[in-house]
Structures are given as C-alpha cells and as structure tokens.
Write a structure and sequence with these properties.
- This protein is α+β, with helices and mostly antiparallel strands and 191 residues long.
- The chain is built from three helices and seven strands.
- The strands form two sheets. Strands 1-5-4-3-2 form a five-stranded antiparallel sheet, covered by helices on one side. Strands 6-7 form a two-stranded antiparallel ribbon.
- The longest helix has 40 residues.
C-alpha cells in the first residue's frame, strides 16, 4: 500500500497598477505688452480664477477633470489624471499525490496558472482604466478650452487697458461680456 501526500499551498499575489494620461495645450500670448508683463497679467487672471502657485512657479488646480498645471513661462497647460489600484488575491490550493515531490509540483503548477490568469486580469483592468482616463480627459476638453479662452480674454482686456493708458488719457472704458461676444471699447484723449 502506497502513501498519499496532501499538500496545501497558499500564496498572496499583490499587483499594483499605475495608469496615467495627460493632455497638453500650447498657449502663446500675443505681445500686446512686453512678454514679462503679459505673463504677469496671465498669472493674475489665473490666481483670480482660483489657481494656486506651486514651488516651481507654475499654477496648479485640481478638479474632476484632473490635475491641471499651467506653466506660464513655457506656455503649456497640462491636465493629468493618474489612477493607482492594488489588486490582491489570496490563492490556496490543495492537492493529493502519491509522492511529496509530485504534490508539491502539482500545487506550484496550479498556483502558477492562477497567477498567470491574475496577470491577464490585471492587464485587462489596466487597459480599461486607461480607456476611462482618456474618456475623462476628452470629456473635459470643451470646458477646458472655454476656460482657457475666458482667462486669455481677461488677460488681453487688461493688457489693452494698460496699452491704452500708455497711448494717452483714457476718457472711458466700456465692456460688454454677453454670452455671444465680448466687446471692449476704450476712448483715449490726447492722442
């Protein structure tokens, strides 16, 4: 009569998934004033809109569209979304075989198979998360573009007011910011 061996093997598999994507907008300011003055006006408008300056002098904001970072000096607005997930699974297998080595080999083989399946599942989860991030970035693009245009419009309006004051005495300024169009009329005396 031969002995049978029963082997229980347990293993915990931990897989960390990090997925990120970014969309960039190149922002070039028209030189209504010297470049450093235009950048200062843009910074002021961004601060008024709730952007915070980081340690490198870039302006940052977080919202449901992602982490936005506006590098005024480089003229780039980058919006980034990053997701970290940790997949954990406890694998336990019980095998019976006629030899200890056979039981151990069978158990290790079964754990390797399940580990390979988990890797495939993790890769699928990673691809799905990447698609979700891309969709979120694209979904926020029109709102982001509208915000960029609004901030630039305010920056140019302030630049035009400064430029007008440099040309002569400003007698009146009329602004009309309707949903359809923005108009700025500046009257200058002593030209």
């Amino acid at each position: 009569m031969s002995a049978t061996y029963t082997l229980v093997l347990q293993n915990e598999i931990v897989r960390t998934i990090h997925v990120e994507d970014e969309i960039q907008h190149r922002i070039e300011l028209s030189p209504l004033l010297p470049p450093e003055e235009m950048r200062l006006l843009l910074r002021q408008q961004l601060a008024a809109a709730g952007w915070q300056e980081d340690a490198q002098g870039r302006l940052a904001r977080q919202d449901d569209q992602g982490d936005a970072l506006w590098d005024v000096e480089a003229g780039v607005l980058a919006v980034r979304i990053a997701v970290d997930q940790e997949l954990i699974e406890e694998i336990a297998t019980k095998v019976t075989a006629r030899s200890r080595a056979g039981a151990q080999a069978m158990a290790q083989h079964m754990i390797k198979q399940r580990s390979a399946q988990l890797e495939e599942e993790a890769d699928a989860a990673m691809a799905e998360t990447q698609a979700e991030i891309k969709a979120r970035l694209l979904a926020g693009d029109s709102a982001r573009t509208a915000e960029i245009q609004k901030v630039l419009q305010q920056t140019y309006a302030e630049a035009l007011k400064i430029k007008a004051a440099q040309l002569g005495t400003v007698s009146s300024i009329e602004e009309n910011d309707s949903p359809d169009a923005y108009t700025l009329t500046i009257r200058i005396d002593d030209v």
